[in-house]
Amino acid sequence: MSLDEFFVTGDPMILASQIAIALTMVGLVALITYLKRWKWLWSEWFTTVDHKKIGIMYILAGVLMFFRGGVDGLLMKAQTSRPEMGILDAQHYDEIFTTHGVIMILFMAMPLLIGIMNVVIPLQIGARDVAFPKLNALSFWLFFVAAMLFNISFVIGGSPDAGWTSYFPLAGKEFTPGVGNNYYAISLQIAGIGTLATGINFVVTIIKMRAPGMSWMKMPIFTWTTFITSIIIVAAFPIFTVALLYMSLDRLFGTHFFTVAAGGDPMLWLNLFWLWGHPEVYIVVLPAFGMFSEVIATFARKNLYGYKSMVYAVAGIAFLSMLVWVHHFFTMGNSAAVNSIFSLTTMMIAIPTGVKIFNWLFTLRKGRIEFSTSMLWALAFIPCFTIGGVTGVMLAMAAADYQYHNTMFLVAHFHYVLIPGVVFAVFAGLYYWWPKMFGFKLNEKIGKWHFWLFVIGFNLTFMPMFFVGLDGMSRRMYTYAESTGWGCMVRLLSSWFLNNGSWFRCTCLQYLLEFPLCVTESRK
Amino acid sequence: MSAHTSRFPWNLLVGFVLSIALTLLAVFVTFYTDFSSSVILWIIGAFAIFQAIIQLFMFMHVTEGKEGIINVINIVNSMILALIIIFGTIWVLTSGHAAM
Ligand code: HEM
Ligand SMILES: [Cu+2]
User: Fold this and answer.
1) Of A327, A416, A475, which is best to mutate to test ligand 1, by the most ligand atoms within 8 angstroms of its C-beta?
2) Are the C-beta atoms of residues A377 and A424 closer than 8 Å to each other?
3) Nearby residues of A164 by Cβ (< 8 Å), 6 or more positions away
4) What whole-number distance in Å separates Cα of residue A292 and Cα of residue A283?
């Protein structure tokens, strides 16, 4: 294989990235050598089994991935900001929305949440560390290696291009013969095993290592949500492991689990993917619910309203989350019975979710509310997430979903649940628990700027998507004609430069600036 | 545990006898009856599940001790999940194909 088959060539943006990556690596190595930090890095961080340090590494990696996924997002927005843009061609656009989705869910949301869990859970339950500290380090490094492997795909070999859902037959080697989708199969396999180990670790930690006297119903609510999340991880991730194994076998060794030839079934992939995929969205949102509950109770200066109902609601969501997966492929030609049953179970999830919303509202009622930055994130979460939830119930009606499915309306729905549900929560949690990690508080003034830019930018970016979606704009299209009229709406409200760009850059800048600051300050 | 050793371990004996009986019954059903092979499979499958339950309770004491309740929840939870995954998948995939 010659070098130009190995590296991706022919695109100036990718060439620029390749050069930038090479320079950054040389620069990092030089800097660490110059500061004589290699030994310190190795013994204090790379080989650490300390839950706090592992947590901090997860968070750092998650922020880095947020940056990478965000650049993907900006590129997509730039390409679709007006009709017939020529920034990205179809293939490049496909690769970018695929890596964007995978990175944001598996390499941004998961590590940020697991990072905060790592830092906070042992402190909340009064344990010295997690149950299996070495396994914990292994989990982190599996995740990290997987993330890096996935990330280099766009400069070496080519990125996966079949969407974060990688539906067969498109993801089969018949239609995507390159190495791109092998990156998907293999790096997610590695990351998934790391996550499974984390799930086991936290289940055992929370069952076995609580301080004497902390009975189940005395556990802090974030510990509860982490516990239930970990149980869902242990339940759901093995399904993904098996599905990815089949995918790898199909792609690498010519088996036919998911190809119609020789009796396979592409729909089996969809079925297994969403058997994992729907629980996965609750895996990322439940710890976030727990964080908001802690933050809201603290800054409303009241006890959490209805603690017990909160616990039951989370358990109910966990149970129902395994019973709804077909709502992601209502339109694939199932019988009326299947679609109706899964419509019902899906709508039922809105009930415990609604219970939680009311619990938060009643916690706020008559509280002495302090508008700290982390409280602001929690307060903004409630209305934004409710919009996401209500549109979810609209999508849950199978008959109506034939209209909404795979339009921008769906894209708006899941961004309205995932960004308030995960990203706002991570910010709320970071502002809230930052002193526990670094020994000082983050600057409230910068924090408020961060908050307002982000929340306004988020709404301006995704709100119009509901409307262009109802107008018929489908997702994953790299361009559209002037005559569709979508350009006007997109341009009017969400010029990427103004909105999307600013909320995103502001977060990244803040963390890029504050992290080194924090590290130096905490070492004083 | 020490309290148990003084008494005669009736539950062990019952478990032992039942296990042997179920195994012999399975042999009998398989070799000496004229049921169709799918019926035989269902019958000996049921025997197997019954025997697994006996072993869990009589010999492995799942419900006893501090971990008892956690073990039981764990087993029940895993079984529910397995059933959802297996029968859910079969139902969703076959009815989808039938509709097409
Ligand atoms: C009230 C609760 C919710 C309901 C009723 C609901 C319903 C739905 C339905 C029916 C779809 C499929 C629509 C289609 O493909 O046409 C969907 C997609 C999706 N939902 Fe939700 N949802 C809810 C909450 C959430 C939450 C909390 C999250 C994540 C934190 C989430 C993340 C997603 C994602 C990522 C997709 C799209 C995946 C894809 O196709 O790429 N949803 N939702
Ligand atoms: Cu779902």
Assistant:
1) A327
2) yes
3) A97, A98, A100, A101, A102, A105
4) 15
Low-confidence ranges of chain A (pLDDT < 50): 492, 495-502, 519, 521-524
Q: Which residues contact A227 (CB under 8 A, 6 or more apart)?
A: A202, A203, A206, A207, A219
Instruction: Find the CB nearest A268 among B88, B93, B95.
Output: B93
Geometric angle at alpha carbon A413, from A408 and A415, rounded to 5°: 95
How many Å apart are CA A187 and CA A184, to the nearest integer? 6
Mutation site, A215, A241, A275, interface B, largest B CB count within 10 A = A275
Cα A287 from Cα A278, distance rounded (Å)? 15
Separation CA A177–CA A173 (nearest Å): 4
Q: Give the domain extent around A40.
A: 9-47
Structure tokens at A465: 């998507």
Number of domains in chain A: 2
Would you tell me how many other CB atoms lie within 10 Å of the CB of residue A242? 15
Question: Do A408 and A381 belong to one domain?
Answer: yes
Task: Answer whether residue A3 is part of any domain.
Answer: no
* pLDDT under 70: residue ranges of chain B: 1-6, 96-100
pLDDT per residue over A290-318, tens digit each? 999 999 999 999 999 999 999 999 999 99
> Do residues A105 and A209 share a domain?
yes
Is residue A2 assigned to a domain?
A: no
Name the residue among A239, A271, A334 with its Cβ closest to that of B99.
Answer: A334
List Cβ neighbours of A508 (8 Å cut-off, separation of 6 or more): A63, A66, A67, A70
Residues A214 and A363 in one domain: yes
- Residues A186 and A309 placed together within one structural domain of the fold: yes
Ligand 1: which residue has its CA nearest to atom 16? A405
**Which of B92, B93, B94, B95 is the best substitution to test chain A (most A C-beta atoms within 10 A)?**
B92
Non-local CB neighbours of A487 within 8 Å, separated by 6+ positions = A82, A83, A480
- Regarding an ipTM greater than 0.90, the answer is no
Task: State pTM to two decimals.
Answer: 0.88
- Both A128 and A23 in one domain: the answer is no
In a domain, A18, yes or no: yes
Q: Is residue A1 a part of any domain in this protein?
A: no
**Distance of residue B36 Cα from the nearest chain A Cα, in angstroms:** 28
- Say whether both A170 and A21 belong to one domain: no
Q: Contact A53/A44 with Cβ under 8 angstroms?
A: yes
Structure tokens at A331: 């339109």
- Report how far ligand 2's centroid is from the alpha carbon of A443 (Å): 37
Q: Do residues A34 and A85 both lie within one domain?
A: no
Nearest-5° angle of CA A504, CA A107, CA A124? 95
Length of chain A: 524
- Same-domain pairing of A39 and A53: no
CA distances to A327, A452, A463 from A102, in Å: 20, 27, 22
